[in-house]
Amino acid sequence: MTSLLNVNNLRVSFAGKEVVRGIDFSIKPGEKLALVGESGSGKTVTALSLLRLVQNAEISGKAAFAAQEGPVDLLSLPERALRGIRGQDIAMIFQEPMTALNPLFTVGRQIAEVLELKKALSPTESAQAAIKLLADTGIPEAARRANSFPHQLSGGQRQRAMIAMALACQPKLLLADEPTTALDVTLRLQILDLLTQLQQQSGMAVLLITHDLNLVRRFADRIAVMEDGQIVETGPVAQVFADPQHAYTRRLIASRPARDVAESPPDPAAAPVMQAKDLRVTYPLRLAGVRGWFKSGEFVAVKGASFSIPPGQTLGVIGESGSGKSTLALAALGLHPHQGQLRVAGQRWSRDAASNKRMRRAVQVVFQDPFSSLSPRMTVEEIVGEGLLVHQAGLSKAQRREQVIAALADVGMGQAQFPAGPPQGTLAPSGGGEVREATSVGAEQFPGLLQRYPHEFSGGQRQRLAIARALIIQPQLLVLDEPTSALDVTIQKQVLRLLQKLQRERGLSYLLITHDVDVIRAMAHQVIVMKDGEVLEAGGVVQVLEHPEHPYTRILVAAQV
Fold first, then answer.
1. Which pLDDT score is estimated for 346?
2. Which domain holds residue 70?
3. Which of 17, 129, 260, 285 pairs as cysteine with 299 (C-beta 3.0–4.6 A)?
4. Domain count, the chain
5. Which residues lie below 8 Å from residue 201, measured CB to CB, with a gap of 6+?
6. Cα separation values, 405 from 223, 400, 401, 416, Å
7. The domain spanning residue 115 has which CATH number?
8. What pTM did the predictor assign?
9. What stretch of H or E contains 267?
């Protein structure tokens, strides 16, 4: 079969630095090709360069595409001709719909605009067609939702609106850049099923860009593995997963989180680090109409949750967005008022900041996105040592620095006393062509480590800084709010391995908030499953994940496989 797209020797450079280095691949009509690799491997730049949407880039090579008017080279077409192909013959779904959609226009208007420009439909015809497209993607009450702005839709609905916009002109090729990364596991499955259904109906080809191997197994026909700007392996999905040839492919496939935690039962005589009974958390809600003038209602975000976290154990809380997981974490940290019983280290949160000070030392938090949770204006020394200024104010500057250095060493980031090596969070080649994890940051890579700023580190390194900041005051419990969801699979595995090591060595307890069943399987001793603020199922990790009783739990587990 003749190729729909045939890319030869594609090269992309920025200011003389080559980030895509002479890659070749092809896509047949109706085929689903997955381009897989970690952040920085060049996947997204490759897709964007096909439509010349990368600013300030030097692009060379050839991209022969079978357009409606005949074969063309996308990389040499005049801008005016290429503009006619964008959105019509080749469409794109961007990674984050909240930033890709215009916040000033309704989603219906944005879809209709594509139809008016590309299909020359009248405003009335395009508006009706936009509603039908939204309905085809499974959005309920499509006519009402068409008049909604992006911020008024859920994450899954925004992604469906993006798909509707991309498919408005029935393109021959769809470029899907991480189309499910920001979604919960059940929504990911729904979006994949939707894309498969729409792809089969229209016969379009799909280039799926992702680092999620579960998605690739479920969706793609062929896979191309990309590392450092080069395609290192290609082939049918089943063949590559069954018998990967390249070391990088083998490492990606082997990057599923591994369980390495103490399995011994907790000491029944030891007091729980955190205990909750009938925990209830509400938010004020403005009532509609005249009633809202006289009284306000309430939205119950957590409805009577009960749990206990023994020393050295992990409680995993799993559920979709909006299930109440993060609200539960805020209550556990004393950052949101609650009803019912909640004790940390035997004490209750109060409205008195002074009495809460001891409890805040006992419980610390590691947030989902280390880039936004670390102040860009503070150095590493200031960030990691900040807690000491509050909880050990009597320390001298030299003593604080000594503790900061020790905390950084505990999370695998050191200074000049460590052997020079690759930056932390990377993998260094060792003898025999194998790959080993780098264990420290060498002075050659990060001279003056303490004086550096967060933007100078990778995502995995920033998360290690966040863990060091939490550990420096010797807490008993860490609240881990999606600690690895913003990281690539190999870096995710390293961070989880670090958390497992710290728990074994220090007897730390974790309250782990996540929607990733694999992370729960690797880390948790006990699990509670939440939906719409309620705890639907609770128990040991093996009991809940291997023998789920509630239908919702079974859906979550099946969506991750």
1. 86
2. 1-34+52-78
3. 285
4. 4
5. none
6. 43, 9, 6, 11
7. 3.40.50.300
8. 0.76
9. none
Give the end of a domain, one of 140, 174, 209: 209
Among 3, 31, 1, which Cα is nearest to 200's? Answer: 31
Spatial neighbors of 225 by CB under 8 A, at least 6 apart, are 36, 37, 231, 232, 233, 234, 240, 246, 248, 249, 252
Place of tokens 């503790």: 403
Which of 211-220, 229-238, 433-442 shows the lowest per-residue confidence on average (mean pLDDT)? 433-442
Minimal CA–CA distance to 157: which of 202, 129, 194?
A: 194
CB-side neighbour CA atoms (13 Å) of 98: 10
433, pLDDT greater than 50? no
Q: For the packed helices 380-391 and 397-410, what is the interaxial angle rounded to 10 degrees?
A: 120
Residue 35 has pLDDT above 90, yes or no: yes
pLDDT in tens, 54-73: 888 899 999 999 987 778 99
Please name which of 495, 556, 510, 507 lies closest in space to residue 530, comparing C-alpha atoms: 556
Stretch 75-87: mean pLDDT: 89
| CB distance 103 to 150 below 8 Å | yes
Sign of the Cα pseudo-torsion (93, 94, 99, 104, in order) = negative
Domain boundary (188, 209, 230) is at: 209
